[in-house]
From TrEMBL:
Pfam entry (one): ABC_tran
Compartments it resides in: Cell membrane
Protein's recorded name: ABC transporter ATP-binding protein
GO annotations of cellular component type: plasma membrane
Molecular-function annotations in GO: ATP binding; ATP hydrolysis activity
Species this chain originates from: Halalkalibacter suaedae
Superkingdom of origin organism: Bacteria
Length: 263
């Protein structure tokens, strides 16, 4: 397993947000964490990279490649986050400083994590942009000059720039139209095949689960209610909440199911 969460509990002063969650992600997995808004999916994913506010208390363990991430110092986790574990957020626009050009974001990212010369950093950035279907001239543009789909692809290029072992993608198509969202996920799937990275995919959209996921877990009110292989859960769900979610998902209308499989 590349990532294992054991007994994860996250609480504020007033309530438990995540309650005794355990799950494991294998190398090369596309693992979907599915649930309604407010179920605790994003909070759980942010705990992996120590991105939660300090007022939240965390119990349990997060083992990444045999290393307990919760025991790392702030300096140590920064070396892991970005280089070995990368995030792509729903608010992709918030990942970019508006008055800095796209190229400056790439250059800073590479300066922090590598010892590459300036020319090499430029070439790596251009190669990354081209790998997600974007032209070289975007390097010199500001974020507000790009469309939502273009900017989300830039976010993917940045996340995969250093070939991380794990990519955490948190509702990355929510702010995009269906066509742009499809293109972004196809791009991510293509990059996963090229690099062999694992993906923790946070979503509430069963269409994407059906098409891309290998394994999944269902989250409700801060707890995991069911986990397993995609086909087992979609074809033979055990928990009543899972059955309810699948039953009300429009993508499972007769005749549509098989056409959306990635496999």
């Amino acid at each position: 397993m590349i990532l294992s969460l054991e007994g994860m509990t996250i609480r504020s002063e007033s309530k438990i947000i995540v309650d005794q969650v355990s799950l494991s992600i294998r190398e090369g997995d596309w693992f979907a964490l599915v649930g309604a808004s407010g179920s605790g999916k994003s909070i759980l994913s942010q705990s992996i990279g120590q991105l939660l506010p300090s007022q939240l208390q965390i119990e349990g363990s997060i083992t990444f490649k045999e290393q307990d991430l919760l025991k790392l110092s702030a300096k140590e986790i920064r070396k892991v986050r970005g280089k070995k574990i990368a995030y792509i957020f729903q608010d992709y626009q918030g990942s970019f400083t508006p008055f800095r050009k796209i190229g400056q974001h790439f250059d800073e990212y590479l300066r922090v994590h590598t010892q590459s010369a300036k020319r090499t950093r430029y070439e790596q950035a251009i190669e990354a942009l081209e790998s997600v279907g974007l032209a070289e001239d975007l390097y010199h543009r500001y974020p507000f000059q790009l469309s939502g789909g273009q900017l989300q692809r830039v976010a993917i290029a940045l996340a995969l720039l250093l070939s991380p072992d794990l990519v955490i993608a948190d509702e990355i198509t929510t702010a995009l139209d269906s066509v742009s969202g499809h293109r972004v996920l196809e791009m991510l799937a293509k990059k996963q095949k090229e690099t062999g990275c694992s993906i923790l995919f946070i979503t509430h959209d069963w269409r994407h689960v059906r098409r891309y996921a290998d394994r999944l877990a269902i989250m409700k009110d801060g707890s995991i209610v069911e986990t397993g292989g995609k086909h087992r859960i979609l074809d033979h769900p055990q928990h009543e909440y899972t059955k309810q979610l699948i039953k009300t998902a429009p993508i499972f209308e007769k005749g549509l199911r098989s056409g959306l499989d990635r496999s």
